[in-house]
């Protein structure tokens, strides 16, 4: 059966157009695949080059981020209908080198002028919904700074090839609310200022703002710190004080960061907010000694009166606190001599806490202004 000439010609035109579209789509897909294959080779070469022999550089994540950016670009050019944008975790900024930078109070005034407002909004919302956030972020900040400086390296999650700081034994109890706040802040900032604000600056500002919210002193934060490319769980051991260390060992840890004994005592006062984890005091309530199942000296929480207020009540309550400070008589006498002077002089303690500096812990300059 023969079709009319016009219908036959129309069918040929339609089929030809279909073939052209199919060919164009195939060429576009092939071109994208070739580009992605090339990018994958470049990524692998870059990772091998930057990774080096130590195996501690986090270049894989950075490379994956740029590869994801290329995938997004090529899919957009090819007009693919389904595009998935994955927000990169805070610790992986676009910065690929840890360089010395000039710190400034208004570091983001031109590149991200909304930075203070965004941070305050996120911090306020999180603290109101989860009051334990302030203590959690303070602890996260110190655990980050005490190991290789305040470089946000504690945010990195380990992979099958390497164990990072976040998964060191002493960092496992770090509260999820603290990580959640950093993630929320970074997400909000990335929507306004992509690839501008570092995670170390987010943690530093969040710590300051949260302390102010719970009654602590206000201090200036110098901005412009860069996130580290190095994170290694083995660096944590011996850099963060634990309950089984002696007084001299604790002083040595803080001394290695350039902190005096007075500043160490001021930092200990950070326990005035928050709560202790079970393993920190389990030995005092279960089989404490041969004659007693529990420690008779333990009669209250760390700060039972104002657990959510940043004040000097921790020092006043230290003698009968939930956590026995290192369970050592010499430490007790030391803290009694140093601490109770502070507990009777709240304003002087507040000024000391406000003026605390951590320059050796920053990696790239100081974070607090004296």
TrEMBL record:
Substrate binds at residue 241. The lineage of its organism: Eukaryota, Viridiplantae, Streptophyta, Embryophyta, Tracheophyta. PANTHER family: PEROXIDASE 6 (PTHR31517:SF17), PTHR31517. This is Peroxidase. Ca(2+) 2 binds at residue 272. It comes from Citrus x changshan-huyou. Keywords: Calcium, Disulfide bond, Heme, Hydrogen peroxide, Iron, Metal-binding, Oxidoreductase, Peroxidase, Secreted. Belongs to the peroxidase family. Classical plant (class III) peroxidase subfamily. GO terms for biological process: hydrogen peroxide catabolic process; response to oxidative stress. The keyword NADP does not apply. Residues 102-321 form the Plant heme peroxidase family profile domain. Disulfide bonds join 112-193, 145-150. InterPro entries: Haem_peroxidase, Haem_peroxidase_sf, Peroxidase_pln, Peroxidases_heam-ligand_BS, Secretory_peroxidase. Ca(2+) 1 binds at residues 144, 147, 149, 151, 153, 165. It catalyses: 2 a phenolic donor + H2O2 = 2 a phenolic radical donor + 2 H2O. It is found in: Secreted.
């Amino acid at each position: 059966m023969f079709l009319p000439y016009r219908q036959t010609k129309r069918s040929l035109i339609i089929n030809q157009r279909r073939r052209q579209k199919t060919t164009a789509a195939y060429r576009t897909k092939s071109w994208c695949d070739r580009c992605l294959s090339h990018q994958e080779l470049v990524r692998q070469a870059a990772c091998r080059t930057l990774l080096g022999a130590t195996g501690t550089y986090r270049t894989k994540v950075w490379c994956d981020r740029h590869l994801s950016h290329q995938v997004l670009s090529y899919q957009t050019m090819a007009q693919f209908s389904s595009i998935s944008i994955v927000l990169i975790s805070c610790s992986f900024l676009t910065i690929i080198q840890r360089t010395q930078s000039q710190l400034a109070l208004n570091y983001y005034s031109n590149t991200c002028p909304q930075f203070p407002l965004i941070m305050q909004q996120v911090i306020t919302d999180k603290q109101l919904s989860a009051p334990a956030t302030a203590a959690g972020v303070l602890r996260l900040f110190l655990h980050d700074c005490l190991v290789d400086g305040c470089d946000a390296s504690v945010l990195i999650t380990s992979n099958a090839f390497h164990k990072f700081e976040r998964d060191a034994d002493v960092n496992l109890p770090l509260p999820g609310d603290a990580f959640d706040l950093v993630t929320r802040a970074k997400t909000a900032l990335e929507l306004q200022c992509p690839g501008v604000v570092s995670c170390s600056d987010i943690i530093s500002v969040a710590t300051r703002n949260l302390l102010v919210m719970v009654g602590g002193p206000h201090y200036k934060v110098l901005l412009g710190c860069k996130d580290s490319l190095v994170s290694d769980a083995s660096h944590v051991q011996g850099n963060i004080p634990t309950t089984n260390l002696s007084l001299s060992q604790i002083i040595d840890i803080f001394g290695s960061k350039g902190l005096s004994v007075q500043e160490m005592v001021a930092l200990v006062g950070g326990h005035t907010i928050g709560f202790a984890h079970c393993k920190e005091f389990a030995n005092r309530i279960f089989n404490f000694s041969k004659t007693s199942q529990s420690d008779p000296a333990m009669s209250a929480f760390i700060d039972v009166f104002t657990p959510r207020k940043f004040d000097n009540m921790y020092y006043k309550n230290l003698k009968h606190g939930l956590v026995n400070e290192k369970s050592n008589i010499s430490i007790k006498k030391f803290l009694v001599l140093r601490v109770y002077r502070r507990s009777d002089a709240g304003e002087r303690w507040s000024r000391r806490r406000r003026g605390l500096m951590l320059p050796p812990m920053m990696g790239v300059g100081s974070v607090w202004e004296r």
